[in-house]
Structure prediction request, 82 residues.
Amino acid sequence: MAYMIEPTDAKKMLEVLGNNLIGVSHDSKNFVRLPDRYWGYFARGHDAKGGFGVIVTYSENAADVDELIGMYEEWAKKNKAA
Prediction:
């Protein structure tokens, strides 16, 4: 399931993600306990239109990523505003 977002929303989302990842990257302790095979990162933000979240995930097994995306797609279907 894919949706187009407005350019201003895309800019804000990337700004939040980038700023959060920069903050995380400045402290090597944030990476000490990451598993070698699977990890994920979540950033949340908001603007005048509402909230949004960004999920970045990595796995050596593509099925892990597909499963996680499927879980969020199901959640979105169940919680979609009418």
Q: What stands out?
A: The chain has a mean pLDDT of 76. The radius of gyration is 15 Å. The longest strand covers residues 38-47.
